[in-house]
Amino acid sequence: MPKTETIQVLGRGTNVDFTIDDSVPFELAERSLREYLMACRGLYSRGTVSINVGRRILAPDQMSTIRGILNQETGLTVSRYWCSPDVLRKALAGPESRRALPPPDLEYARNPSPARPPIVSAKAGTPLAQVPAAPEGDPARHQEHSAPVPFPGRGGFQTRPVQQLSMVFPELDQAQGDSLSVQIPIVVMERDSGSAVDLEAGRERPNGASAESAYWGVSQQSAMPAPEPLTGDENGKEGKAAQSVKSEEPSAEPEDDAWPPADARPAPNDHALLIKHTCRSGEVVKHTGDVVVYGDVNPGAEIVAGGDIVVLGALRGMAHAGAEGNSKATIFALKLESHRLQIGSHVGEAPRAAGKSKRNARSVNPQIAYLRRRTIWVAPFTQRREEYGGGTPYEG
Amino acid sequence: MKGKTIVITSGKGGVGKTTTTANIGAGLALRGHRVVVLDTDIGLRNLDVVMGLENRIVYDLVDVIEERCKLSQSMIRDKHLPELYLIPAAQTRDKNCINSEQLTDLCRKLEQEFDYIIIDCPAGIEQGFRNAIGPAQEAIIVTTPEVSALRDADRVIGLLEASELHRPRLIINRIRPGMVKRGDMLDKDDIVDLLAVDILGMVPADDRLITATNQGIPVIHDKKAPSGQAFSRITARIDGDDVPLMDLEPKGGLMDRVRYLMGINRSEYTHA
């Protein structure tokens, strides 16, 4: 990944972080961001990002500048700005500190531009991040890509794939700057338990709620949308009131209210995820589209794809294609040695005791697994067809 | 002088990390380097036993890190090699009582004095593992030709790569050439194919190694032991020499086969 002095991009797979130096002047940060994004145009595709503002609080016009840059250069949509609770607390702590900082929040609260409804989790209809008008800065920016359409058992849009990766490889954040996947649908995800500050919700502010209460409605937990006001009681109550009002609003204006906005929501199978390393034991890759692995998938690794899985190497780990119920999905590998495959909701186990077929470890035998009559079949791959036939059944 | 810190790790326990550490340390010292071996397996120390230095322990790693003694006081000179030192782990503490930064600081200090710092990593991938890989500039993975050990090695390689320790090198321990030839054991190609890392060496299973370990003398001092010769080659490779891999061939003679069938051969391999 290209790097400039002020912008650093780290990440791999479905997890990419932008970090922008928050000590440089805003103009410089802005320029570097634009240059960087221009340099790698095409690398990022539609989606939404959340922005951690770091230590600085910016004015609304600066916020919209960043939003404009991202949108213009990459088509990414900024869904919200957030920062750690400490920054918020400090920003509002003393009058002097408040004076020192531009008060974008109040600005927003006074002129609630009803451009957008509160952020609402796709499933529950509960507001994701209640909080309003956000301080805004350029700096540490978190763009996280994850499955926009939840896999079964996952709640809402604050999905887990990235967190899972982080759990598996706690060091991942610092790691592997060079193997970034391309063309990933990007969806907001909050990484850690910093509080979420929701720009959109801030704009949305209903008239009744005071600016202060709105400001402080900070949702503490990233995974759970339940908001927890940080401030005193009265503020908290007001905040909650505001939230409840907001959570009702989407039903009133359905067309505009869905979140993420329709254009930011990648369709299933929209993009492929390209993994340019060997997936080793313990690594879990989840993606809504197709997954292509430029290497092996070792035993103990897991690939879960909404679409097809193509492994340009040996597939020995767990592969689950069509995870959202697509029974037309296939799994292709140059060497298909998995003991267990899943397509859609069907599971198949390799018929023979694997391991005996290893005599010709170097040879390549392209095979494709497909689903027919509720059974997974594995056949030698000769060419791409609409319908596959023959092969060995992997009984469920 | 600027030394190099190498961590010996495996994920799975019991594959021979400690023995490998002792032998590589001794081997590098035999080649004239100043070497310190560092046992980070706090609470379950045994590098000192393998090196036969158990009786000399006064201070340990945790004492150094908590500044109860000077660094030089905790270093135990080897019986055989004056240029080889051991810093033993504490036996009465646990792995959470030190952290990666402290160990890194310690290793940076040692690098000023020594050519090689060899870290014996504990099994597992928890705090002890993170401590041990923190200071390392290079990593050596030890595995045995078993599926379980390979699975763990694969995981550890993933974790090392995620920690910016790229291109770890692999030692396959306890290979039984006879079994490999009969197809009952994974061979080198299978393992390298799976793990996709460079191979540093192969060590045959060897009764002499067990004897030597029990006596507290690294087997590398035993010129006749195949495993000792394997460790000499590995050490040379670490030191930058280009040595071919050991040729592990089962004995081909008629009498050996007869002995093997009768179950009285002591070891089924020899080295070429």
Cross-sheet strand order for the largest sheet of chain B: 3-4-2-5-1-6-7-8
Q: Count of DSSP E strands of chain A?
A: 18
Number of strands of chain B: 10
User: Which chains have the largest interface?
Assistant: A-B, 23 and 19 residues
How many structural domains of chain B?
1
Strand content of chain B is 15-25%
The arrangement of helices and strands of chain B along the chain is: EHEHHHEEHEHEHEHHEHHEHE
Low-confidence runs of chain B? none
Distance between the termini of chain A: 42 Å
Gyration radius of chain A, to the nearest Å? 23 Å
If helices are DSSP runs of H or I spanning 4 or more residues, what is the number of helices of chain B? 12
Give the distance, in angstroms, between the N- and C-terminal Cα atoms of chain B: 38 Å
Provide the number of structural domains of chain A: 2
In what order do the strands lie side by side in the largest sheet of chain A? 7-9-11-13-16-17-18
Structural class of chain B: alpha/beta
Strand content of chain A: 15-25%
Q: Which percent range fits the helix content of chain B?
A: 40-55%
The topology string of helices and strands of chain A comes to: EEHEHEHHHEHEHHHHEEEEEEEEEEEE
Mean pLDDT score of chain B, rounded? 89
Principal-axis shape of chain A equals elongated
Alpha-beta classification of chain A: alpha/beta
Verbal overview:
The complex is a heterodimer of chains A (396) and B (272). With 396 residues, chain A is an alpha/beta fold. Chain A folds into two domains: 7-260, no CATH class; 272-394, 3 Solenoid (Pectate Lyase C-like). In chain A, 24% of the residues lie in helices and 23% in strands. Chain A is built from ten helices and 18 strands. Chain A has helices spanning 26-39, 60-74, 85-93, 95-100, 104-110, 161-168, 199-204, 211-216, 233-252, 254-257, and strands at 7-12, 15-20, 44-52, 76-82, 141-144, 184-186, 272-275, 284-287, 290-293, 302-305, 309-315, 318-321, 331-336, 340-343, 346-349, 367-372, 375-380, 392-394. The radius of gyration of chain A is 23 Å and the shape is elongated. Chain A starts with 6 loop residues before the first strand and ends with a strand. With 272 residues, chain B is of the alpha/beta class. Chain B has one domain (4-246): Rossmann fold (3-Layer(aba) Sandwich). In chain B, helix 7 (147-162) links the parallel strand 6 and strand 7 (169-175). In chain B, helix 5 packs parallel to helix 6. The longest helix of chain B is centred in the middle third of the chain and has 16 residues, at 147-162. The N and C termini of chain B lie far apart (38 Å). The mean pLDDT of chain B is 89. The interface between A and B is medium-sized, with 23 and 19 residues.
